Amino acid sequence: MQNGLFSDDELPVAAPRQNERIADMHRMFGVTDDAICGNCQHFVRYHQSTRWAKCSKTRTTASRATDWRARNAACGLFEEADR
Ligand code: SF4
Question: What CA–CA distance (Å, rounded) separates 9 from 30?
């Protein structure tokens, strides 16, 4: 029986939250001590009418759900950016 808009197998799946996504990176690749994502070459900054960033080593979409935080503790894929 269906009580709401969706049956149980039709429920929308929420995108993982930011802290879950960086935690997955840490589980998969480890942590680089004393480094943050904002200094990594895989941290890609965008600037149009607003500013946002993505990690090029993760799945990215146009959604804010895949935006990335510069202050995240760096994962094991960290490579110092040439900025
Ligand atoms: S350290 Fe680099 S590769 Fe790892 S999560 Fe941060 S931006 Fe992505």
Answer: 34
